[in-house]
Amino acid sequence: MTQSIQFSSGLQLAPFVISSGLLRRSWNVISSQHEGIVSNVGEGLSWKVYKEPDTAVTIIAFEATPEYSSHLQPDLVLSSELKEKKNFLHFNFLCSKVNPVFSFNSTAVSLFCENYQKLDQLKSEINISNASTTKLIITGHALGGSVASLFTVSLLNSIGSGNNRPLCITFGSPLVGDKTLQQAISRSSNWKSCFLHVVSHKDPLPRLFVTDSTSAYMPFGTFLLCSDASSTCFENPDSTMELLMAFSSIHAQNEGFQSAEYGNIVKNLNLKALHKDFITKSEDLTYPADSLASCISLQLRALGLTHHMQQQLQNIDINSLETNMKKQEEGFIKQRRIVFDPSKKLNQIKENMAQLEWYKKETKNKGIGYYDSYKNMNSPWDNDVVQFHKKLKNYWEKMVGEVEVKPQTEGAAFRKRWLFGGTTYRRMVEPLAIAQYYKDGGEDYVTKERSKHFKQLEEWLKESNGKDLESTSKKNVEAILTIDSCFWAHVEEALRSCKELKAAKEKEEELKKLVEFEEYVYKLLKNYAVSPEIFLEKSSFMFWWMEYKGIKGTSYSSPLVSFMNIAANRDQYTLGAYDFP
To answer: Which residue would you say has higher pLDDT here, 129 or 275?
Structure first.
């Protein structure tokens, strides 16, 4: 078996980013190198707005006052605390069922909240959601870069999947949040691609909150890491953390770095990129055996982390760093490969559903219906359907799981797009799960066994107010999938109640359950919300009906009895021609 080749493309990405000119253009606004820059002053914060002439680009640069910057604290504030204590709801769209709470750096988020009224006005002025031609760059250095990140995060709720997304470029900024914030942003490829962070290996500020592997902080976005001679990019937050910790060990005493030096760093890197003198020379480098390890060695070399410098790097083991980095990148590559994309398997899923439709039709012709046929497992077809059932279940379980970890807005859009398919799947396939459960001797499926993804799909339908999917057409009754996908579980429980009555156990309670089931069935019938397959000669429902009639006796009268006692009524129902009183 041939092993797949793995690479880390950071050395190729870095010169591409630098040669684009975006770093230079951003820094020029930060350092006020243009006429026409409009300055604004807030509480402990200022921002400059520059509209580039002859382009559709607007650049916004944030800067915190020295007073705020000098009192930067490592404390984290929960998003729920912002909501409860400050009634600040502007980051709530990031929440998901799996990831309901996240944390921000207290200093950065306080500065953002204190200026939000003016920043909200700024958002209205730039209005990127409606101006399709506007390109927005949001930038800042040090603590100003942290505010730039938060401002960009606040814009994510209004951007779609098109090209008109803001780009946040920070220089030497400390991390702004914890792992749950990173996960919330990284769940959308559109969102995480909006952030580029430039970090010098000498700058202590970006690693200020990264003391060791137990740090609560976690980076998000792409990091352009720079040495005096070169640079490289990392998208993997775990790899970035490894390097920030390595920088902390190597440059623990390097406190003389000034954020203004990023201007020279950008200038020098831009010159190297333009002169194509960027890729690290490697004639004296001993390559490891595999391509990924080679890439990592070259990237570490670009940052001055080489075996030749091991004696000077007393606080870090280069071999261990390379091993850890390779492990982190392997995990990151694997994770990207297994990211679930429902649309990629959609054709296969449609084929499996078509097979079930065929199975449903064939079993109906045999007078038994697909629920009871699958439960009995008496034909080769039944065994074939096991695989279709399994594939469909795996697909939709993954889809539901993926949606649950998406931020609220994106998850809602995703649910709406897949609502019809999910509802059809649930109504077609859940009866198979019920059949298997009761075949194996199970009891009380709805309470004890029902899968979470079936419950979630049903809940999404209710939340969407999907009336079209809740109604049926009398013109095509034979094609109806019973609205309540748990119908057959209720049939099985009604059969069990009949059995309990025959054994003279809990008569009053079981009779009550049977009457409730009778009323439930009649309501479905009146709404044409149940498939006429239930009337097939060998169906479990008809078996229940015969048992129930025997229990109630010939003198018992009810709307369901009046309907069921006349076979022509059932035939008319199948044709959509029966008018219920």
So the answer is: 275
